[in-house]
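task queued by scheduler; priority normal; single chain, no ligands, no partner chains; default sampling; output format set to structure tokens
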Amino acid sequence: MRTYLLLGMACLLSACVSTPLPKPDPSLAWVDLETQTGRLVMAERLDHQRMTDGRYFQVSPGSHELMVRFDYEVFIGGMSQFSNPQERLCYITLNYADFQPGQRYRLQARSLGFNAYARLYSAEGKVLAQERLVNCLP
């Protein structure tokens, strides 16, 4: 089962890599996605609407709700279990009320043990918003 999951993720990621990102629309705000502690963070929903390209958000000025999918591994138990980490899938929602046209933002998802977090940063690195809701499986 794990092999099929990894194969599916590889296919999904290879499809994303082969398609270039569109040019940012200067009348919209652009949100890059990043993680340093997880495997994958992808745009899932913008204002309750499913995204067609999970590599970024491009939003109109004003207030929006962003939901990302965040996949990461958790190591549990004694030394014998460190070779088989448990995979976690989380959906993280955050709101930000003041997206500006032509601006770039960065949404960073991270994990600490079984907990997942997300923050939205300005281009200057200032924290603008953090997660409002986190739902994880298993």
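post-processing summary
- The radius of gyration is 16 Å.
- The longest strand covers residues 86-99.
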